[in-house]
Design a protein that fits this description.
Strand content: under 5%
Number of helices: 5
Order of helices and strands: HHHHH
Number of strands: 0
Helix content: 55-70%
Structural class: mainly alpha
Length: about 90
């Protein structure tokens, strides 16, 4: 049974907070949801839990696009490590 449609809360800032916390791999949706809750993004965590089928599309399409529009001083290797939850080595 599909979850009833509910308005989607703003997820990008919650995803970015999870990423910056370095608590988990962004592809681990369970960890992302738990971390969102821990960081106070309970509405976003609840919505994401009810709409897990959309998570990878949001992460890969929307969040990646947002990140590309927000340039940083990190190398590509550092960005990949940070996005996947690996240890970031300062270059």
């Amino acid at each position: 049974m599909q979850a009833p449609l509910s308005p989607r809360p703003p997820l990008i800032s919650a995803l970015d907070a999870v990423k910056l916390s370095k608590r988990c791999n962004m592809f681990d949706s369970t960890c992302v949801i738990l971390t969102m809750r821990d960081l106070g993004y309970t509405l976003q965590a609840h919505w994401l839990e009810a709409h897990l089928d959309n998570y990878l599309d949001i992460l890969i399409d929307e969040y990646q696009q947002w990140m590309q529009q927000s340039p940083s001083n990190e190398s590509l290797g550092q960005q990949v490590a940070r996005e996947t939850g690996l240890e970031v080595i300062e270059e």
